[in-house]
Write a structure and sequence with these properties.
The protein is α+β, with helices and mostly antiparallel strands. The protein has helices spanning 2-42, 333-339, 353-370, 373-387, 389-404, 406-416, 420-434, 442-461, 485-499, 507-523, 529-559, and strands at residues 83-87, 91-96, 101-111, 121-128, 131-140, 160-162, 169-178, 181-190, 195-204, 210-221, 239-244, 247-252, 262-267, 271-275, 278-283, 289-296, 302-308, 312-314, 319-330. Strands 1, 2, 3, 4, 5, 6, 10, 13, 16, 17 and 18 form an eleven-stranded mixed beta sheet that branches. It has an eight-stranded antiparallel beta sheet with strand order 7-8-9-19-15-14-11-12, with no helix packed on it.
């Protein structure tokens, strides 16, 4: 009777705890919604800060300075500034005519939250009181348009640019004239692309040579983006990245920049700003040797990720141009790989890259046929388990043999528990007699480990999972299960799987093993439901494999004379 009462009490306490967690989850989401609503108000273009920085005289300029620059260029006086809005099918950008910087970028096919929850186009680039994240560019050098003294004021023929029917390319031209040199800063959009070609067209009507170097810069504050990942657990990398001469992909957090600037010089190359699912990057011409720099601003309020291109010289009466590409959008492997060599490494799989990339290809191929990312995850997990079955079976057979020896191991512990040396000798003798290797299951498990970790990172880093529904209550595979059904199922499957496996003879180790399902269940409460779905299906398949192997072992034992 007491056992019945205790079980009922534990069940009631577990139910209350579950309901409390759900309520806390709802409370946290409500607080996050309030915070996001404040941000959304500041995201209106009329809240953007345009024109020259009012603190220019107090801080050192963020503009790169070339030591070879000897001439002083007079920058035209700022007579007014405005925002130019341009958009294609997937992207909307806002350009400040002072300096010609991209100060706003909205991803039209990626919402800040689900559509049915009132989601609006996700705003990445933004220059407002609550956010500084922009793409700057200009000309530095002997005939600089951008100096510590100021930046050029451009003029445009319109304030809104959209594609006309049949057009595949949209040009946004900003114009200025400095000392007899006509300068056109052109932003070129493709109809359905996230890449923006930024081009300077120089028409030198002066009597002397014109010389300058193109620079591109990502200016970003140190405030983290809104959480796209789990509330706790493994988080996606957030910070700067670039290609260096001896490293195809290097990451630097903003804290790393506190120790001083990071510089690199390489043919081609790129510099990027990473966050979960999305990336911005400057990609200069691949044929030029470009200089890259990561540093803090002089007042240390922002982080500057820049490149400076090779200088160009335009003779009197001549013309010239320089261009670079700016990308702002999702971490799409194919698109990034086509834009620049190793830029697709910004989809940060870490050391698991070798396995993760083909796994994502398989997942994406399955989705092309299935049309649902939840079922695609399940089918991919099944395919991986089938591929690894020979290794899994070897490990499971070893576990089954160890389980069959448990009664004999328990008896040895009763006989020699106080004499560890004698007990070890008897255990080894038993293993030798029964032809059992206690470590026999370790190597197959180790060989599987990289693939399972790779699959984890594939699901964690794939922007395609964001806002993707599965079925019933799981309407976003990138967020946690609102009712924690999947984490509980995962924990339950892990508990049942332990029943099919031998427990350690050491009491401490056995207790730790018994506690693992509870610990992992709690740990995964905040994980994206797509990841928890993967682990749950993997556990269920492992249980089925273990049951099948155990049954085979019993059949073989009965068949022995």
């Amino acid at each position: 009777m007491r056992d019945w009462h205790r079980s009922l009490l534990i069940t009631g306490m577990a139910l209350i705890a579950w309901l409390l967690v759900i309520e806390w989850n709802q409370f946290s989401d409500d607080r996050a919604s309030v915070k996001q609503s404040v941000t959304a108000i500041e995201d209106d273009y009329d809240q953007y800060e345009v024109g020259p920085d009012t603190n220019t005289s107090k801080v050192q300029s963020d503009i790169p300075i070339l030591e070879s620059s000897l001439k002083e260029v007079v920058i035209p006086e700022v007579r007014g500034t405005q925002l130019i809005i341009a958009k294609n099918e997937v992207l909307e950008i806002a350009i400040d005519t002072y300096g010609g910087d991209i100060v706003g970028a909205k991803l039209l096919k990626h919402l800040d939250k689900k559509k049915e929850e009132g989601g609006k186009p996700l705003s990445l680039l933004q220059r407002s009181k609550g956010r500084v994240y922009e793409a700057r560019s200009g000309i530095i050098g002997d005939n600089a348009t951008d100096t510590a003294a100021g930046r050029p004021q451009f003029y445009a023929t319109a304030t809104d640019y959209e594609f006309n029917y049949g057009d595949e390319v949209l040009n946004i031209d900003l114009l200025t004239n400095i000392d007899g040199v006509k300068i056109t800063k052109r932003f070129q959009l493709n109809r359905d692309g996230y890449d923006i070609k930024v081009q300077y067209l120089i028409n030198n009507s002066s009597l002397s040579n014109w010389s300058g170097s193109f620079y591109g810069q990502i200016k970003r504050d140190s405030n983290p983006p809104s959480s796209e990942g789990p509330a706790f657990g493994m988080r996606s990398y957030w910070g700067a990245a670039l290609r260096e001469p001896e490293k195809n992909y290097s990451k630097y957090t903003f804290d790393d920049l506190n120790d001083g600037p990071i510089k690199a010089s390489i043919q081609g190359g790129w510099v990027a700003m990473l966050q979960h699912y999305f990336v911005s990057a400057w990609i200069p011409p691949s044929d030029d040797v470009n200089n890259f720099s990561l540093r803090k601003s002089s007042d240390r309020s922002t982080n500057l990720m820049s490149f400076t291109g090779a200088p160009i010289v335009v003779p009197p009466g001549g013309s010239g141009d320089y261009h670079a590409t700016f990308y702002i959008g999702p971490k799409d492997q194919k698109i990034l790989g086509d834009l620049a060599t190793y830029l697709d490494r910004t989809i940060d799989y870490g050391w698991a890259w070798v396995f993760a990339q083909p796994l994502f290809w398989v997942l994406d191929s399955i989705y092309d046929y299935v049309g649902n990312w939840g079922w695609s995850i399940i089918l991919l997990t099944i395919l991986v388990k089938m591929f690894l079955y020979p290794l899994s079976a070897a490990s499971l057979r070893s576990m089954a043999k160890m389980r069959n020896l448990q009664p004999q191991l328990t008896r040895l512990k009763e006989l020699y528990g106080d004499d560890r040396q004698k007990m070890s000798q008897e255990m080894m003798a038993l293993y030798k007699k029964e032809k059992v290797n206690p470590a026999g299951g370790c190597l197959p498990m180790l060989l599987q480990f990289p693939i399972f970790i790779s699959l984890y990172w594939v699901l964690f880093e794939s922007y395609e999972i964001r806002h993707a529904p599965w079925l019933f209550w799981i309407q976003d595979l990138s967020t946690k299960d609102p009712y924690f059904v999947l984490p509980i199922l995962m924990g339950g499957s892990m508990f049942l799987m332990q029943k099919l496996q031998p427990m350690p003879t050491d009491p401490m180790q056995a207790n730790i093993m018994r506690f693992m399902p509870i610990a992992l269940t709690i740990f995964m409460l905040g994980f994206p439901s797509g990841l928890v779905l993967y682990w749950t299906i993997n556990n269920l398949l492992s249980m089925a494999q273990q049951w099948y192997v155990n049954r085979q072992m019993k059949t073989n034992l009965k068949a022995k004379p």
